[in-house]
Amino acid sequence: MPDPTPVRGVIFDLDGTLVDSGLDFDLMRREMGITPGHSLLEAIDLLGEPEAVRCREILARHEWAGANAATLMPGVPEFLAALVERGLHRAVFTRNSRAVALATLERLSLDFETVVAREDAPAKPDPTAIWRICENWRLRPDQIVLIGDFHFDIEAGRRAGTRTVLYLAGREPTHTPGAVEADFRLTCFRHAAALLAWMSEPL
To answer: pTM score, two decimals?
Structure first.
C-alpha cells in the first residue's frame, strides 16, 4: 500500500527562498576579482593565502549585511505554520555561514529543528547534508521535499533522492536554471495550496 502521507519533512534553502537578503553576488565577485558566473565558495577554495582570507572577509561582510537587512518572502510564515500543523519536520540547508544563518533566522523569528551551514557539511550541490538530515529524522530521502531557488538546490535534492521544488519568486521558468529538472515549481508561498496537495499525494 502507498504511504498516505509520503512527505514527512521539508528542507529549505535560506537566501532567496525563505528570506530576501538582497545579496549582490556580482558585486561580491567584482570586489574579490572572481570571474563572473563562477560560484563564490568554490572559487575562494581554489585561492591561495592570503587572497582567500581577503575574499572570505568580503564574503562575511556582505553576508552579515544581508542578515541585518533580510526580510521574509511573502507567505513564508503561513506556509511554515501549515507544515507544523501537519506535523512535518523542517530544516534549513544553506551555503551561508552558521553564524549568519542563525542570526537571520533568529531576527526573523523563524524556528527550525535543524540548520546545516557550510561549516557543517559539504556545500550544495553535494547531497551529504541531506542524507544526514534524513538519518537524524529517521526518514528516507523519498519522504523529503527540498525547496530552493537555485539550480544547486535542485541538483542536491535530485542527487540525494528527494522530491525537489524550485521557488521562482516571480521569475519565468523558461529562463530559470533548474526549472526543468525540478519536480514542482512554486511561484509564491502565498499560493502554496497546490504544493501542499502535491506533497500529500502517494508516491
So the answer is: 0.92
